[in-house]
Specification:
The chain is mainly alpha-helical. The chain has helices at about 1-10, 15-25, 25-40, 45-50, 60-70, 70-90. It has one domain (about 1-90). The protein is about 80% helix and about 0% strand.
Length: about 100
């Protein structure tokens, strides 16, 4: 979850123009970001609290590795998922 918190902070620096341009470069990124957003929107607060203590799945580890290696893709991902995830985490008391 700390990666998500860091992602949210970094997203404040991303611009909408850069997001649209970068997302066009990574068509699969939309599917991945939509999956992440949907996971947070459909999860209960209890489920998110439980997930917080679990180690990341192999799929999550691959995604994080890919995002670390491609700063433009990372910026596009963060700018798209930041607001929905931050709102859910705030509602659940996972953010101060």
């Amino acid at each position: 979850m700390s990666l998500v918190v860091l992602s949210i902070c970094a997203a404040a620096a991303c611009s909408a123009v850069g997001e649209a341009q970068t997302t066009a470069q990574y068509p699969i990124l939309d599917a991945v970001t939509n999956k992440v957003i949907l996971k947070y929107q459909q999860s209960t607060c209890e489920q998110l609290w439980q997930k917080k203590s679990e180690p990341p799945s192999e799929e999550q580890q691959r995604l994080v590795s890919l995002l670390r290696s491609d700063p433009q893709m990372r910026a596009a991902f963060i700018s798209k998922v930041a607001a929905p995830i931050a709102n859910k985490m705030f509602d659940c008391g996972l953010l101060p």
